[in-house]
Recover the amino acids of this structure.
């Protein structure tokens, strides 16, 4: 197995445990629209894309209204409810300690970087791609291809780590290895090259345990 060195991380549901809050805001927006969410697994729907979830929950004719309602609640909430998963810092630090490099690729706006700064994690990353970069959305490989070209990365050493099939799709379309963080068991080994239930298992499985002189920073 390759010794992977370049880890491109998604934010929501991968590094930060935000889906509970996302679900509550979607439900709040549905309540305002008099839409029932009783018996609906909003979390599972959100594991596709938020836009697809809104179509499933509100129908094509009201999906955009629901999406606007969600973003209104999300903007009002700010960064307060963005919390890293347990082992997030230890996982990112392990990548660096073993000679690897972390990158962020998220559809979330610059608030993701602000959360990393607040939580003392930003220095563990070399570069960031957020919504402001205006690349085509995942599973398009455009952002990953730019990152790889910009930093002259070896695709055989790169892993796209996310929590949804669109993350794995972006990695696959960019010709790099894919990994899903899936603590709730939504996916199968067919959905990505690797599926993990623990963040720390990612560097433990995909990297050499000891830093060697042959490993130099990208």
């Amino acid at each position: 197995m390759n010794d992977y060195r370049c880890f491109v991380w998604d934010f929501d549901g991968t590094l930060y445990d935000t889906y509970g809050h996302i679900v509550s805001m979607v439900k709040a927006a549905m309540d305002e629209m008099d839409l029932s969410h009783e018996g609906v697994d909003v979390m599972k729907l959100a594991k596709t894309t938020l836009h697809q979830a809104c179509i499933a929950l509100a129908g094509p004719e009201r999906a955009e209204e629901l999406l606007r309602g969600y973003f209104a609640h999300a903007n009002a909430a700010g960064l307060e409810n963005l919390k890293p998963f347990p082992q997030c810092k230890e996982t990112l630090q392990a990548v660096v300690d073993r000679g690897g490099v972390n990158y962020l690729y998220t559809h979330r706006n610059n608030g993701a970087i602000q959360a990393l700064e607040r939580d003392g994690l930003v220095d563990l990353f070399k570069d960031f791609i957020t919504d402001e970069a205006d690349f085509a959305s995942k599973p398009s490989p455009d952002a990953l291809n730019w990152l790889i070209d910009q930093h002259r990365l070896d695709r055989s050493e790169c892993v796209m780590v996310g929590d949804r099939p669109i993350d794995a799709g972006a990695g696959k379309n960019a010709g790099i290895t894919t990994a899903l963080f899936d603590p709730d068991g939504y996916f199968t080994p067919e959905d990505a090259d690797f599926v993990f239930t623990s963040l720390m298992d990612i560097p433990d499985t995909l990297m050499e345990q000891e830093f060697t002189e042959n490993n130099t920073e990208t």
Notes: The radius of gyration is 18 Å. The chain has a mean pLDDT of 94. The CA atoms of residues 12 and 18 lie 6 Å apart.
